[in-house]
């Protein structure tokens, strides 16, 4: 097995043979997915980095890793600093770095199936003053070097029943057709995997922890569609479900199908469709309408069936978490558990529900200093013992047919320090400020984000990630376009106005490098709300996750009476929802955890 240094050297040799002075390696797939199948883990193969967002740039004499603030510590632990320099986005960008580091007149290669056209245009413009060129490769050079590269999944698609989806696939396609006619377009390209899964009411297992299938789709203005997927992945049940209005075509035919759309006005999403899709449409003579995929917003606003399913999934998942927290509190002080032990035990509690499909992401099981890396990924090599005096953070979620969950809790292994209680309580205060926010229609998550930070800012503290992300209905654990964040944080840019029916996380945190990390995460539903005496309908958040918040970490003197009232009400509702799903011993434990603070 070649070392990571050997892999980097082999890539440089191959690039030189092919006439390239550099190459860009993003962590994504041909669908611009956040989480990707094993076959697309090129960045991990090249560098050893196990995070979920990052890009590498390789030149003949130097190489750089680009990650955001969530991975500042992790990237340095997993990637050899002797081979790589480390750059943090958005402070530094790949385009700016190449403008300053690429050789004069250099040819920098990129895979057009792994980058957006906007990225290509911006990076090419940055190279131009140096006489450099950004050049598409015919095939990804890493694939030629990666001897044991996994094959894409051959798992079959599954039908998502209308009872859970809330709408038929035919109804969704009809709505897309209406949108196309309104836009004056003949067809829509769907390349985002969760958009396809939602629009066709199908799910898959091609991407770990995300129930989607590797596919593309073209939807016509008459509501008919073509679904491009490996034929062997489609059984008779899915064919019956899709009906005669959907033609199944081999995924390998997708590019040629795009080139056959001469004279057609084709809608394509510049954020979610890769450059190769635009290139194929251009070469075929189509007229491009660059607009956001209309499924994105429709999918984000949950219908009553999706909301009911989410609530049911949250209830059973919450009960599993309660069992886990009791087990952890009783077991961890002995000092015999490791991070992997705990992640596996939580998985087992979820599996005991009998309906768990998968985790919704790789569990962040982090003790002590590891928790100071917000997206720490425990491996066999990093697996640490959980010791007395530490704080333990676990961020995890489940995939159920009726909903997707995501929750973070922090537990002291023994008695926490006064500083830990202070920081935890400030994070809790920010969490409560978001949970209780009432806001006008048109408000974005950027306006809500400061609510979470104020208690930390008042003490000269902050955290380097967004406060909340959208979440899917048995789909992606990170779903756009809704989020709660400052525009400069990962996924930056204009933020979407929040709308009733959207689901988001509420997860402020605090991280002390080398010592501990804190994050409190629940999920919330945006609902309509008219305050007493008001004359306008406003929006508010309705918390949907109910798992006790560790009272040993709370400094009561820092809480206002309103914050205590929220906490007491939250714990009373936790007991009401989870209690009936627990055995008597666990329920008694929960009653103590949910006792009023007042």
Could you please describe the fold and organization of this structure?
By secondary structure, the protein is α+β, with helices and mostly antiparallel strands. Helix content is 35%, strand content 20%. The strands form 8 sheets. It has a 6-stranded mixed sheet with strand order 4-3-2-1-5-6, sandwiched between helices. Helix 14 packs across helix 15. The radius of gyration is 24 Å and the shape is globular. The termini are far apart.
Short description:
The protein is of the alpha+beta class and about 600 residues long.
Structural class: alpha+beta
The second-level CATH architecture of the largest domain is Alpha-Beta Complex
Tally of strands: 28
How much strand?
15-25%
Features of this protein?
single chain, 598 residues, alpha+beta, Creatine Amidinohydrolase, Chain A, domain 1, Creatine Amidinohydrolase, 3 domains, six-stranded mixed beta sheet, 20% strand, globular, Creatin/AminoP/Spt16_N, metal ion binding, Creatinase_N, metalloaminopeptidase activity, aminopeptidase
Question: Would you spell out the secondary-structure blueprint of this structure?
Answer:
Layout: H1 4-17, E1 22-26, H2 42-47, E2 55-59, E3 63-67, H3 72-78, E4 85-88, H4 94-101, E5 107-110, H5 117-127, E6 133-136, H6 141-145, E7 158-159, H7 162-165, H8 169-183, E8 187-190, H9 193-200, E9 202-203, E10 216-220, E11 225-228, H10 236-242, E12 246-249, H11 254-259, E13 265-268, H12 275-284, E14 287-290, H13 295-300, H14 304-331, H15 339-351, E15 356-359, E16 364-367, E17 391-396, E18 398-400, E19 403-404, E20 407-412, H16 418-435, E21 438-439, H17 445-457, E22 468-470, E23 479-484, E24 503-506, E25 509-512, E26 516-519, E27 522-529, E28 538-543, H18 561-578, H19 584-593
Parallel strand pairs: 1-5, 3-4, 5-6, 8-13, 11-12, 13-14
Antiparallel strand pairs: 1-2, 2-3, 7-9, 8-10, 10-11, 15-18, 16-17, 17-20, 18-19, 21-28, 22-23, 24-27, 25-26, 27-28
């Amino acid at each position: 097995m070649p070392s990571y240094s050997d892999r980097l050297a082999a890539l440089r040799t191959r690039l030189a043979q092919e006439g390239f002075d550099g190459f860009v390696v993003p962590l994504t797939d041909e669908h611009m997915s956040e989480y990707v199948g094993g076959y697309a883990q090129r960045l991990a193969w090249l560098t050893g980095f196990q995070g979920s967002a990052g890009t590498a740039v390789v030149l003949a004499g130097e190489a750089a890793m680009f990650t955001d603030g969530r991975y500042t510590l992790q990237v340095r632990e997993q990637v050899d600093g002797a081979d790589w320099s480390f750059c943090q986005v958005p402070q530094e960008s790949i385009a700016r770095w190449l403008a300053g580091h690429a050789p004069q007149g250099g040819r920098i290669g990129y895979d057009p199936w792994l980058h957006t056209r906007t990225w290509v245009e911006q990076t090419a413009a940055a190279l131009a003053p140096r006489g450099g060129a950004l050049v598409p490769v015919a095939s990804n050079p890493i694939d030629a070097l990666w001897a044991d590269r996994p094959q894409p999944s051959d798992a079959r698609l599954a039908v998502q029943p209308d009872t859970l989806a809330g709408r038929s696939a035919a109804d969704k396609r009809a709505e897309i057709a209406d949108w196309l006619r309104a836009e004056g377009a003949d067809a829509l390209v769907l390349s985002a995997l969760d958009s396809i899964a939602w629009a066709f009411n199908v799910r898959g297992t091609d991407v770990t922890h995300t129930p989607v299938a590797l596919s593309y789709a073209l939807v016509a203005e008459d509501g008919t569609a073509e679904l491009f997927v490996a034929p062997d992945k489609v059984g008779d049940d899915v064919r019956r479900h899709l009906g005669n209005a959907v033609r199944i075509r081999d995924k390998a035919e997708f590019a040629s199908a795009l080139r056959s759309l001469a004279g057609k006005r084709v809608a394509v999403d510049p954020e979610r469709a890769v450059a190769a899709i635009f290139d194929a449409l251009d070469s075929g003579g189509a007229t491009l309408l660059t607009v956001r995929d209309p499924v994105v917003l429709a999918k984000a606003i949950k219908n009553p069936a999706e909301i009911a399913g989410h609530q049911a999934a949250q209830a059973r998942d919450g009960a599993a978490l309660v069992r886990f927290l009791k087990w952890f509190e009783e077991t961890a002080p002995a000092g015999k558990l490791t991070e992997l032990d705990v992640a596996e035990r939580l998985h087992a509690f979820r599996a005991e529900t009998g309906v768990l499909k998968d985790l919704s992401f790789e569990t962040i099981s982090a003790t002590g200093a590891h928790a100071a890396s917000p997206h720490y990924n425990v491996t066999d090599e990093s697996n640490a013992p959980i010791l007395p005096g530490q704080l333990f953070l676990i961020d995890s979620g489940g995939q159920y047919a009726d909903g997707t969950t995501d929750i973070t809790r922090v537990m002291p292994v023994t008695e926490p320090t006064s500083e830990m209680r202070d920081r935890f309580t400030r994070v809790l205060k920010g969490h409560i400020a978001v949970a209780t926010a009432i806001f006008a229609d048109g408000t974005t998550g950027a306006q809500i984000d400061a609510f979470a930070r104020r208690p930390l800012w008042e003490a000269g503290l902050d955290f380097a990630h967004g406060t909340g992300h959208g979440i899917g209905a048995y789909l992606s654990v990170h779903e756009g376009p809704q989020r709660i964040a400052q525009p400069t944080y990962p996924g930056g840019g204009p933020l979407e106005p929040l709308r009733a029916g959207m689901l988001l996380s509420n997860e402020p945190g605090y991280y002390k490098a080398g010592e501990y990390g804190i994050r409190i995460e629940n999920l919330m539903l945006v609902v309509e709300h008219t305050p007493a005496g008001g004359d306008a309908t406003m929006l508010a958040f309705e918390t949907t996750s109910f798992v006790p918040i560790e009272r040993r970490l709370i400094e009561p003197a820092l809480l206002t009476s309103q914050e205590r009232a929220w906490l007491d009400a939250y714990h009373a509702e936790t007991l009401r929802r989870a209690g009936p799903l627990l055995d008597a011993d666990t329920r008694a434990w929960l009653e103590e955890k949910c006792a009023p603070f007042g």
